[in-house]
Amino acid sequence: MARRETLAAKKQRALRVFEALRETYPDATCSLDYRNPLELMVATILAAQCTDERVNVVTKTLFKKYRTPQDYVNAPREELEKSIQTCGFFRQKAKSIANSCAAIMERFGGSVPGVMDELTTLPGVGRKTANVILGQCFGVPGVIVDTHCTRVSNRLGFTRQLDPAKIEQDLMKLWPRDMWTLYSHFMVFHGRAICQARKPRCSECPVAGLCPSVNNALKTASRPRRQALKVVASKKREH
Ligand code: SF4
Fold this sequence. Notes:
Layout: H1 7-24, H2 37-46, H3 52-65, H4 69-74, H5 77-84, H6 90-107, H7 116-119, H8 127-137, H9 147-155, H10 164-172, H11 180-193, H12 214-220, H13 223-238
Helix pairs in contact: 2-6, 2-8, 5-6, 9-11, 12-13
The chain binds iron/sulfur cluster.
C-alpha cells in the first residue's frame, strides 16, 4: 500500500504543481466578462450549469440594458427571464439576480459588498460566487471550488472531499493566501484543456509527474494512449 503523504510533502508538491501550471497557463484568469462587481455577480449567477462563453454572449447585451441594481429590481420579471433564457434555469436565475439586487439596495446602499459574510447573505450567492467576486474585484484571495477544481484537485490528491466547503478548507492549507485565486483559475484552464472529466489527457499533462492519478488513467486508456501514458508514468517514477 502506498505510504500516506505528509502535509509538508503535499505542500511541496502543491507548490511544484502551481509553478508548472503557471508556466502552462500564464494568462489564466476569470473567463467571464465584467466591468464591476455587480456585473461579475450577475455573470457568475448566470454561469451555473452554463458555459462562460454562452454567458459572455448573453451579458454583452444584458449589461447594456441593466446597469444598476435598481435596473434589475425594476425590470418586469418576464423581460429579465427572456434576456437570460439561453443560459438555462432562467426563471431561478432571474429570481436570484432580482432578489440579490433588491437586497443590495435595501441593505448595502446599492453597492455589492466586499465581505464574505455579507455576500453570502445575497440570494443565489454561495461561497463559490462570493470567492469569485472577492478575488477579482476586491483583491481578497479565495479558493473557488467549481466542478473543475473539485475533479482536478481530487485527481491531484490535494483533497479527497466532494463537498465544496471541505475542499476549500483542504486547498487553503496547501498554498499561501495570495496563490488561492490563481490556483482556482488554473483548475478551470487545466480542467478544460487537459484534465477533462471523461478522458484526462495525461500523456500531455505538464503535471503528470506530480499526479498520483496518472496510473489510474493508464489502466483505463486505449492501447495507443496506454503507450503514451507509460512514458509519462515512467517519467513520474524518475522524480
Ligand atoms: S496526470 Fe492526468 S489525472 Fe493527473 S492532473 Fe494530469 S491529466 Fe489530470
